[in-house]
Structure formats: C-alpha cells, structure tokens
Amino acid sequence: MTEIFGKPLPVIMGQLLIGLINGSFYALLSLGLAVIFGLLNIINFTHGAQYMMGAFAAYFLLNKLGLNYWWALVLAPLAVGATGVVIERLMLSRLYKLDHLYGLLLTFGIALVIQGAFRHEFGSAGLPYSIPALLEGGQNLGFMFLPNYRAWVIFASLVVCLGTWFVIERTKLGAYLRAATENPAMVQAFGINVPRMITLTYGFGVALAGLAGVMAAPIYQVNPLMGADTIIVVFAVVVIGGMGSIMGAVVTGFGLGVIEGLTKVFYPEASNTVIFVIMAIVLMIRPQGLFGSR
Amino acid sequence: MTFKRKLISTAAMLALSAGAAHAQISGNVVKIGVLNDQSGTYADLAGPGSTLAAKMAVEDFMAKDKSLKIEVVFADHQNKPDVGSQIARKWFDSDGVDVIVDLPTSSVALAVNQVAKEKGKAAIISTGASSDLTGKACTPNTVHWTYDTWQLANGTGSAIVKTGGDTWFFLTADYAFGHALERDTEAVVVKSGGKVLGKVRHPFPSSDFSSFLLQAQASKAKIIGLANAGADTTNAIKQAAEFGIVKGGQNLAGLLVFLTDVHALGLEKAQGLIFTESFYWDLNDKTREWSKRYAARHGGKMPSMGQAGVYAGVLHYLKAVAAAKTDDGTKVVAKMKELPTDDPLFGKGKIRADGRKIHDSYLFEVKKPSESKGPWDYYKLRATVPADQAFRPMEQGDCPLVKK
Fold first, then answer.
1. Confidence band of A130 (pLDDT split at 50, 70, 90)
2. Is A131 within 8 Å of B263 when comparing Cβ atoms?
3. Interface A:B, Cβ pairs < 8 A
4. Within an 8 Å CB–CB cutoff, is residue B46 touching chain A?
5. Is residue B391 part of a domain?
6. Which CATH number goes with the domain that contains B243?
7. Which residues pair with B168 in a beta bridge?
C-alpha cells in the first residue's frame, strides 16, 4: 500500500475529504461573519448562538410542527434571521458610531444570555435529530465510506458560499451594499434606504448562521453549547482570511478544515490548536490576513 | 419585662447547650459543597441534579436526626482543574465548607483530592472516574463512592472479549479520565486474551469525530472502545452510525455511558449498547421510590448513577458526622470507613481502607425502541457483578494507605 509519512494513502484521502466537510461549516459560518463585519463593521459574537438557534429551530419544526429537514432548511434561517433583524433594530443600530469594542461586548453578552436560556431549558446533553431519509446511507469510495449527508453538506455549502460571493461582488445590489459601507451619506443621497439595507444585511448574515445550524443538526447533537465550541475556531478562520473579505472567509474555511483534518491523522492531540498556531503565524507575517486589503 | 428577660436567658442557655453538644462542629454547621460541571458538557449527568441529590440527602437525614445544622452550597468548576482547586481552597479556607462532593472530570477530582488532604477536610467523589483516586493518589480524606475506571473496564471489557470482541481500537478523551479508562480497559482486554490494534486521543471536548472514526474503521478492529464521556460519547455514537461503522461489522463499546446520554441519543441510536453502571433507577422498589421523588423535583428527569451516588454518599457522610460527633475531615472519613453503609440506592456495602466504596456493579444493555414501555425505560440488566469482584483488589492499587 502506498504510504505518506508512514500513513496509508486511503487514510489520508479520507481525512482530506473529512477536512473538506468540516471546512464547509467553517466556510458557511465565517462567510456570515465576514458579510456582517465587512458591511456593518460589527464583530458579531452572537454568531455561535445563532448557529445553535438554527439547529434548535430545525428540531422544533420537526417535533412540534411536523415539518421535515427540507422545510427547516428554508424556515429556520428565516426565523433566526428575523431575530437578527430585531437585535439589529433595537440594539446594534445604536452602536455604529462607537468603537468596535462596544458591538463586540454587546453581541458577546447577547450570546451568553441566549446560550444560558437554552441550557436552562434544554440541558447540556443535547437533543436528537435524524438525517433526512433521502440522504441516509452512503457511498463506498474505495478509500472511505462517504455518508450521503456529508456529501450534501459540501455541495450545499459551496453553492451558498459562491452565491453569496457573487451577489456581493458582482451584482448591482452588492455594489450598493459596498458603496454604503464606504460612504453611507452619499448612497443615501442617491435615494437608497441605507439603514434598512444594513438591517437586512445583518439579518442575512445571521440567517447564514441559522442555515449552518440546520445543516449541523443531523451530524451533531442539537446542543445549547454547540455554537460556543465552534465560534472560536470560526473567528480564527475569519482573522486568517482577512476581516471582512468574503472570498477570504470561504477559501480559508475550506483550507483550514483540510489542514485540521490532516492534523488529526498525524498528531490528533494538536488538532484543536493547529488553527490558532496558523493564526499567530499569519498575523505575524501578514497582519491584515491572507486576503485582507487594508 | 421579667418574662422577656427569662425568655432571652433560656434562649441563651439553649444556644450554649447546643454549642456544648457540638463543640466539634466547625462554625456550628456542617457545610456541604457540591462542586461539579454546572453548565458544560457534564452538566446533565452531574450538574444541578447532583445539588438536588445532596439536598435530598440532607432532608432525609434531618427527618430522622435533628441534632445537626446542615447547609448545602454548590459551584461550577467548568471542568478545569485550576478553577476547581481554587474554589476548593476558598471553600475550605474562608467559607467553612467541611466536605466537597460529586467532582466529575477526573483531572479536577485529582486536584481537589490533594487540596482536601492538605487542609484536613473531606472529599466524597461520585461522578469522577479515575481509579487512581483509590490507587496511587489515595488519601485518608477521600471516599470514592459510585464507580471507577477499573470497574467499568472490568465489567464491560471482559464481557465483550468473552463474546468474541477480541480486537480493539480506542477513541480516548485526551485527559486524565480518558487515559485512565483506556489503560484499565487495555489491561483487561489483554488479560482476557484480546489485542489492542490502535488508539487515537481526541481533544476534550470535541464535537466532530469523523476523522477519528475513520481511523478506527481503517484499523479493522472488531470493537471500537469509546474511552470518553457525556456529549463526546453521544456525538461519537451518532456519527459512527452515519459512517456505517456498525453496519460494516464493527461494534462500539461505550466504556462510560450515563442514563442521561442514552436519553439524549434516543433509543433508536443507542439500542444494543452494552456498558457497566453502579445504579439504575428501575432496579428495585427502593430505587424506584427514590428516583420518582427525585424526578418530581427535577423536571421529570431520572437520576444518573453519579447523582444517585451524591445522595448516598452525603447520607453516609452525615451518619458518620453524627456518630463521630465532629466534622473534622480526616476523622469523619475514618468513621465512614468504620461504619457499614446502608442506603436505599446502593443497598448494604462498605468503604475499604483505600477509600473505595464497594457495592454490586451491573452490566446493562440498552433496550430496542419496541421493548421500552415509556419514557426513561431504557435498560435491560444483562449481568450483576458481585460487590467483592466489581472493584480492583486493594493490594493491586498501590495505595500508600494499604499495608502490604
């Protein structure tokens, strides 16, 4: 059998693919963060809690209303996005003129409140959520068994990421958004309702977190702490990619998933620190991040 | 006026006499500190449920014996040894806590174990697992109540090797507990004629196990031993099903599974799992009676074995305090070892010189959804390991308290 550094090739291939799957989640989550930071200049620490709310929304849609996974994919992000709109209107919109730090503190506080409330209500062991019947089972790729659901996660995440990038970088709507961050007064003068656009952008970023939550529900336990564990890594991804860079967030998300996967083969104990080591190195060499411009 | 003065002097005399009777009780109150994970991955299997169990023990004790003043406090150690020992020191030094109970997360339990010894206080460990607590780390101040890694390894490991599961691959949580559980299980597997093909240590806590499971799959071992606990175990089991591990002919051995984990997984995913525990709510009339009382006050949730152990441990501790007429940690623990134990949950038993509480151990199998009669009806009893065989023989533990 072919070996690389003493590990059989099939194992490495398998890990690369697994890395890509985890990378899909990192990419989806960091995409939302990048959109929010890039266009609102808010460091959204509530993102992890909103991801968790997406998973819980899927659970409730199934168990209280009998709506399956596919409905949840549409409805849960809408519901979570709506809560985001409320948060933005009531609280965040008052902080845009202040330092980043205030937005960070506010969103961090909201995250703690939401997580605490869910934990109080549902405990920390989590709730079960099954893989939709259509995506059960898997394919034997020769070097590994790929569950259909995981393949779907990669596909869906790629579509959403590229779609978002396209809208923001290549369409007229995206041009308005980018212009509004550069010079809101000028854009307003052209008759565009900038505050509403910003509110909807925040809602959209939050909905992305909710969507990632729905996609994660069948893989992980639906657990009040699922976001708190993931969000730290995702922040590292955003920092490495360059704060606010959409493409940076997507590419680094997938890339770091793969690197983390390889670490799990060669030195599993370090798999939850490797991303932060990379972050430190990147910050030393290129403080604006790999894809950052400023 | 005279009447009032009389009243005051009587009250003062009463207070004095009460003080005289319990001159050995520090601060005139026995203070019990429940120290565990109140908010993280182990909060459901220990957490606030353990605090409730301790309070119930106090109430049940007071119903029979009103001579002591008892108080229960609790804190969250966040599964971090430094946080845990810091709280323990503060409790012992300035808050008048006499005994710390529960202590899940072996790394924290081992740290607080040392603090209790240093301060001459008591520790009754229920949810903490490492068998080192009554082995090379044993102290005259610690009682290890509910279960330990040697018991789990011995119960589950040997049962599985006997039924043909003779090649193993370990998925191990990378901290003191996982290491101890892996070490103790490996010893049992090898002793029973099995072989360990490989192991991988995952960060604690982890949410994604796919890459570790893939390595386990590639090892072709018949049994994948999960040397982890709580959400780590449930996530690993859930994802193993996704990757077709059980369908591919490999089996999972949950080396430490709590009732709350089975509840979180659901019977559909958990059915057929075999593991060892010291307690199940549906064992006999006494356990059912107590558990129903507990569930009524805990949102309908049945107790885990760790929570049951907190109740029983606190009850026995209070009996020992009353008998020894002191709350001095070292003396009470000595008294606890001297008195035979008897409670509704673990029955009659004893505490050995090394601090190990001895009782029967049970091998359970999770029911199929069709076999379950209702909520929380999850286990079938496969075998009972008698108390004298369930735990590591004292002379093999290297506990310095045991004379060879």
1. confident
2. no
3. 109
4. no
5. no
6. 3.40.50.2300
7. B196, B223
Helix (H) or strand (E) holding B110: helix B106-119
Rounded to the nearest integer, the mean pLDDT of chain A is: 90
Its pTM stands at 0.84
How far B385 CA lies from chain A's nearest CA (Å)? 29
DSSP, collapsed to helix, strand or coil, labels residue B175 as coil
Q: Is residue B130 located within the same domain as residue B201?
A: no
With respect to residue B120, please indicate whether it lies within any of the assigned structural domains.
yes
Nearest to B234 among A147, A221, A225 (CB): A221
Asked if the Cβ–Cβ distance from A131 to B43 is below 8 Å, we say no
Asked which of B337, B354, B371 is the last residue of a domain, the reply is B354
In terms of residue numbers, what domain contains B178? 150-277+361-385
% of chain B residues with pLDDT over 70: 94
Contact call for B218 and A264, based on CB within 8 A: no
**Same domain as B293, residue B273:** no
Q: What is the mean pLDDT of chain B?
A: 92
Same domain, B118 and B171: no
Q: What is the predicted pLDDT for the residue at B404?
A: 62
CA atoms within 13 A on the CB side of B5: 2
Tell me: domain A9-285, CATH 2.40.160, correct?
no
Q: Are residues B195 and B90 in the same domain?
A: no
**Mean pLDDT value of segment B80-106:** 96
| Sequence ranges of the domains in chain A | 9-285
Reduced to 3 states (helix: H, G, I; strand: E, B; else coil), residue B220 is coil
Residue B72 lies in a domain: yes
Greatest Cα pair distance in chain B: 89
ipTM value, please give it: 0.80
B13 in a structural domain: no
SS3 B254: strand
- Which residue reads 């996704």 in tokens? B242
Lookup result for tokens 């405990």:
A123
Q: How far apart are CA A173 and CA A177, in angstroms?
A: 6
**One domain for residues B165 and B233:** yes
Tell me whether residues A219 and B248 touch, CB distance under 8 A: no
Of A22, A124, A221, the CB nearest to B238: A221
CB spacing of A22 vs B208 below 8 angstroms? yes
Residues of A in contact with B174 (CB under 8 A): 268-269
Strand, helix or coil at A65? coil
Query: Same domain for B163 and B255?
Result: yes
Who among A10, A149, A268 is closest to B200 (CB)?
A268
Determine contact, residues B278/B234, Cβ cutoff 8 Å: no
Q: Does A262 touch chain B (CB under 8 A)?
A: no
Looking at the structure, do residues B320 and B188 belong to the same domain, yes or no? no
Tell me how many domains chain B contains: 2
Residues of B in contact with A116 (CB under 8 A): 39
Of B100, B56, B79, B128, the residue nearest B327 (C-alpha): B100
Substitution target in B79, B200, B211 with the highest count of A β-carbons within 10 Å is B211
**Residues B256 and B218 occupy one common structural domain:** yes
CA distance B401 to B164: 38
